[in-house]
Amino acid sequence: MLHEIEGGGGRLVLSGRNDRLLRILKITELDGRVQSYATTEDAVSHLAAFE
Fold first, then answer.
1. How far apart are CA 29 and CA 26, in angstroms?
2. Mean of the pLDDT values across residues 9-35?
3. d(CA 30, CA 26)
4. Are 12 and 34 a contacting pair, CB within 8 Å?
């Protein structure tokens, strides 16, 4: 799914960042491809910058 999103020019971001999520992203080596944010507002702001 991430490959398809990126292939279409999209981005995947996650909100509700915590230590557990960061650890999972690092273990799966997705920490360089998926941005995570503490709040939904932060995630939306990040995406809005790319419009």
1. 5
2. 92
3. 6
4. yes
